[in-house]
Amino acid sequence: MKIYTKTGDKGETGLIGGRRVSKADLRIVAYGAVDELNSSIGLAVSSLCGKEKVFSDLADVLTQVQNDLFIVGSDLADSDYPKSQYNTPRTDENMASALEPVIDKFESELEPITFFILPGGSAEASMLHVCRGVARRAETAAVALYRSESINPAIIMYLNRLADLLFVAARLANKRQGVPDVAWKKKKSSQ
What we know:
Family: Belongs to the Cob(I)alamin adenosyltransferase family.
Pfam families: Cob_adeno_trans
GO biological process, one term: cobalamin metabolic process
Largest sheet: 2 strands, antiparallel
Strand content: 5-15%
CATH superfamily: Cobalamin adenosyltransferase-like
Radius of gyration: 19 Å
Keywords: ATP-binding, Nucleotide-binding, Transferase
Helix content: 55-70%
Domain Cobalamin adenosyltransferase-like: 3-172
């Protein structure tokens, strides 16, 4: 089977169930952002796996997140929420709840935050901060869709919690490599 179908050549794509919509539809923007997030996390995992002894637990968590994001994406691609005849996997609140003890565990390794943190430090932390930014954009796109159509509210909860996890993961990547978080410095007044 060929990868190209030419069915999207006029700026439309199909949802689960066959309905055609514009590629600029809020639903497509939302699951496109989730797909980008999954790809970004894949890049971060590849980098973390190069330092397996330091980051194996974090890489395992993020690999599970990638699997979860497939569910989030398929949930968004099915416009028949809450009822669907297609057995589409659905995001559930337990997916977000499962991230909370992981966040707590990773955060227990960190010093409390006493300053605003700029994205940066080690290359691994920087990648995780990029992932966090993409997660926030995916969350924003899901919220925009939620305000115009019926979607599973657990999606928004999951993406919100995931952004929190990615922030803590970025700090953890710096900490485990002995790299300090980058502090925001207020510009001194010229007056």
